[in-house]
Design brief:
Layout (H helix, E strand, L loop, with lengths): L3 E11 L4 E12 L4 E5 L6 H7 L9 E10 L2 E2 L5 H7 L4 E4 L3 H4 L6 H12 L6 H10 L5 H4 L9 H13 L5 E5 L7 H18 L2 E6 L2 H7 L2 E6 L2 E7 H6 L4 H8 L39 H5 L5 E4 L2 E3 L7
Parallel strand pairs: 3-8, 3-9, 6-7, 7-8
Antiparallel strand pairs: 1-2, 1-4, 4-5, 9-10, 10-12, 11-12
Helix pairs in contact: 4-5, 4-7, 7-8
Length: about 325
């Protein structure tokens, strides 16, 4: 049985003027010890989908219209707030975007790690355990760094502290939402290596959210490609990257820079990601797709299974 299975998730945001669909029929799964990469342009619904796993979105304005979020077979959408608090951080833990904004600016970083331990592993909430976790994530001079405030750390060190806080509770699933944003290439590689080491050591599953296909290819077993609130392609990493079936996936890969490629202008995807609720009536990518026909603009495509654990939302994928 998969650790996480999302089935036909539908989520709306209610405003004073309108009700806007944000996630529309998303289905994906993550096995125990597996890494799933969730990729797509900004605004396509990746982070909202991830926050829905433990219902971290405030309700209202968020409203779950349908579907299931099965965590070890238990539907998260049916849990009480007390039951949700028991799985947040302990079963599912998050590395949020922009660690500098996620860390508490008035608490020393060691205190923040100890707070995580106190909530989820109270017998181990000691100074020695805090220092051990700082060492585990590669922070030099951890005894001194534990006394620092977040603003005294570089972006890379702040991210390592965030990882220590997220993994110290020994979660079954780690959600890493753009964990390398705003970091230079060398630090990005170090952070990805660190996540892989921690996964091997503690047997975690990882949901890696990113728009960087290179990083996802390095760590993910499978890739889910998201566009305008829907999964448009899902499959093994090598299958998706070597033989992309959806026009959007192919366009993403073409637009990524590549070492050794002749210096020329990268092909860009025309247009912009549509605003939530302002999606085209047929295929949502059709207005930006160079292969779209009249049927694409009129008929919403279904998610088709085209092989073992391989799906695509395009009836013309063989072309």
């Amino acid at each position: 049985m998969d650790l996480l299975e999302i089935r036909d998730l539908r989520l709306r945001f209610e405003t004073e003027q309108d009700s806007v669909s944000i996630v529309d029929g998303v289905s994906l799964s993550i096995g125990k010890g597996e890494t799933l990469g969730l990729v797509g342009e900004s605004g396509c619904g990746k982070s909202v989908t991830a926050l829905s796993i433990t219902r971290l979105l405030p309700e209202p304005p968020a409203r779950y219209e349908g579907g299931q979020i099965l965590l070890d077979g238990q539907d998260v959408l049916t849990l009480s707030q007390a039951e949700l608090r028991r799985i947040r951080g302990r079963v599912v833990s998050y590395i949020f975007q922009e660690p500098g904004a996620s860390l508490n600016p008035v608490w020393r970083v060691g205190t923040q790690i100890r707070e995580t331990l106190r909530l989820h592993r109270p017998k181990e909430a000691t100074d020695q355990e805090v220092i051990r976790w700082l060492q585990q994530v590669g922070v030099a001079s951890p005894e001194w760094r534990a006394r620092d405030f977040p603003h005294q750390l570089s972006g890379g060190l702040q991210q390592r502290v965030m990882i220590a806080m997220a993994v110290a509770s020994r979660p079954a699933l780690l959600v890493a939402d753009e964990p390398t944003t705003a970091l230079d290439v060398t630090i990005q590689a170090q952070i990805i290596d660190l996540l892989q080491d921690l996964q091997r050591q503690y047997g975690m599953s990882i949901l890696l959210i990113s728009h960087n296909l290179g990083l996802v290819a390095r760590i993910a077993h499978r890739i889910a490609v998201m566009y305008a609130g829907q999964i448009v392609e899902l499959g093994d990493t090598r299958q998706v990257l070597d033989a992309p079936a959806h026009p959007y996936t192919r366009a993403l890969i073409r637009s990524a820079p590549e070492l050794g490629r002749p210096s020329e202008r990268l092909p860009a995807i025309p247009g912009q990601v549509p605003q939530p609720g302002q999606w085209a009536p047929g295929c949502r990518f059709a207005p930006r797709c160079d292969q779209a026909n009249d049927l694409c603009h009129r008929t919403p495509p279904e998610l088709l299974e085209i092989g073992p654990r391989r799906w695509v939302r395009c009836p013309y994928h063989e072309q």
